[in-house]
Amino acid sequence: TMDSKQKAEVEIWVSLRNLKSKDTFSKSDPCVIVYENQRGKGWVEVGRTEIYDNKHNPDFKKRIRVNYYFEKRQEIKLEAWDWDNARTKSTSGQDYIGGVTTTLANIVVDSGMPRKLLKRSGKQACKKKGLMIIRAEQKTESNEKVYFKLSGIKLPKMDFGLFSKSDPYFQIFRKSENRWIKVYQSEVIKKTLDPRWQPKTLSSADLCNGKTKQPILFKVYDYDSVGSHDQIGEFEVSLDEIKQGSRIGLKRPWKKKDKIYGHIEFSEFKRYTEASFLDYIRGGMEVQVMFAIDYTGSNGNPTNPSSLHYRGGRSPNPYADALQKITSILEPYDKNNLIPAYGFGARLRSTNTVSHCFPINFNDRDPEVKGQVGVLSAYHASFDGLLLSGPTYFSEILQLAAAKASSNRFDSNMQAYTVLVILTDGCIDDMRQTTDTLVQMSKLPISVVIVGVGSANFAAMEKLDGDDHVLRATNGQRAARDIVQFVPMRDFKRDPYGLTDATLAEIPGQMLQFAKSRKVPPHPVVEGKWRNPDPPLAQGSVEDSKSGVPLTQVGGLFPQTAPPAQPHYYPQQARPVQGVPVQQPTVVQVGAPGQPVWQAGQPVQPVYSATPQPQYVSQQPAVPVQPATVQPAYVQQPATYAPPATGQYQYGPYGGQPSAPAPVNNATPAYYQPPPPPA
């Protein structure tokens, strides 16, 4: 069978901080082992670092490779050990320092974040100071694409007859241990000995797992409509050996004579790197999740065990099960972890009217709930405020999601992509309006996932999924791209992981297709959102805030033994925050791209706009400002802008909390406070 599974390969590397000695007369000899909780196998070691002798703050050089899948929950466990016996690989007899258990998604999203080293008891290791810093980046080879066009030259005739010719096609195989896996098969070119096949683009990962020196097998066949196809010949070549114009002879290894049976020419060949979904995630793109739940009467009375919304069982009902599984995958990518959750098709007790779009927490002003726990809690509590009703209308929910997606920016300054998950048990009663709305939404940064719950006929839902056809509106307008994925839950009753695999696997490709249509590249990857957890400073040193958190001002005199002052940095990834609309002026002008958000002694200049807009803070990384003198070392403070309108708020770079208007601050000196002399 053909292997079409797409994956990305991620490299993990680790640092430890503030370790304590496990040995009596020397420091620890740390090593980190990385495990992945693999389906059906449990915790499997995927790699380990080198061993550092006598070091409490090691930065390990060895990188651990792990395959990354957006649609899977991949649990990762990292254990730090004091390795006393280097002659054995077994942990038996070694001293356990502490560990971190998380997911690969969390590592990718929060690359570089310090995490507490925990003992097996759950308490923090190393006198409550031990930290592990985990970083991750995608291997560039897994991003590489290969474009090629093949031509055959003087291939032999494989059919009998004076005027007969061949009908050639070719197959490509990737080497995997001791076998070859087919990754591509070309079209058949009829009646020719000099075929010119259509150009094709494949990933380097598909062709050779990114190992550009590894051989790739090409086989050329003569197609026969009856019986088996005749092999014309084959050859092996690596990516590094191929150049445009390369001409390679076809051989038949099963024959003793080393004869050439025609040639294959790479008439066009190009290797290039294309931005991946992970590039956008690591560059700061936020995946904003929305849920819409079907509360129509066809689900059955929630007090009846046969209901799809049954509330009394020991195990979760199908809706709760789907909510739990899908949020567990998507939650790490939603940075504020606030999820809008809506319902449709219910009669609300408060108004005694049927609603086709209402927040399940019944709070119109704040429909968002906190993460997976909030979604499930709001879902279970919602039945006290509604009665199941009908009919099943999607269009209002879709229009709400479209409004949210259209209000998000997807450009060189900010990138947000919406994923709407609809859970429903039956047919749509507003198919025409739903189709028209989806066609319009295909131009927005959004994907729509429809999960079919129960055993109803979902034929109408499958028409919305554009995998094998282009969705058209009633006026004939074609969808700009496929944004819908429909998955029936009943197909995965015996597969606990199949639902999320099938539901979410298409989202990265749909997002990339949108970004490509807008010609918007990913933001540069900038780490340093967290304070650098380096060891405590010795007296006389200068504190540095490269991690991006402003240093707090400390009183006291600067020690005479201090080294030269170092540059200080302000947040390297300040993201625009949607806040309360500010009347003119509306946007903070920060100068040319790449300039700092502020500069010591220079006020921020406002730029006026014709209409009220949200205020944003530049996302460009801050640049260091070198102090004018060696002493004192200066800490640059964040710039704030005071809007002229009374009652408005300034939103800072780290969240959505309003802060009181304040003038622009100049540089403020910060001093190192020496510890008091011992008593």
Summarize the structure.
With 679 residues, the chain is of the alpha+beta class.
Topology summary:
Layout lengths: L7 E10 L12 E9 L3 E7 L15 E5 L6 E8 L12 E9 H6 L4 E3 L8 H4 L2 E8 L5 E10 L14 E9 L2 E7 L14 E4 H5 L7 E7 L7 E8 L9 E3 L13 E11 L3 H6 L3 E9 L23 H13 L7 E7 L1 E3 L4 E3 L2 E2 L8 E3 H12 L3 E3 L6 H13 L8 E9 L6 H11 L4 E7 L6 H6 L19 E5 L9 H7 L2 H12 L68 E3 L15 E3 L25 E3 L14 E2 L6 E2 L8 E3 L9
Parallel strand pairs: 17-18, 17-24, 24-25, 25-26
Antiparallel strand pairs: 1-4, 1-8, 2-3, 2-5, 5-6, 7-8, 9-12, 9-16, 10-11, 10-13, 13-14, 15-16, 18-21, 18-22, 19-20, 19-23, 27-28, 29-32, 30-31
Helix pairs in contact: 5-6, 5-10, 7-8
Describe the 3D structure.
- Helices cover 14% and strands 27% of the residues.
- With 679 residues, the protein is of the alpha+beta class.
- Strands 17, 18, 21, 22, 24, 25 and 26 form a 7-stranded mixed beta sheet that branches. Strands 4-1-8-7 form a 4-stranded antiparallel beta sheet. Strands 3-2-5-6 form a 4-stranded antiparallel beta sheet.
- Helix 5 crosses helix 10 and helix 7 packs parallel to helix 8 (431-441).
- Mean pLDDT is 79; it is low at 1-5, 531-623 and 625-672.
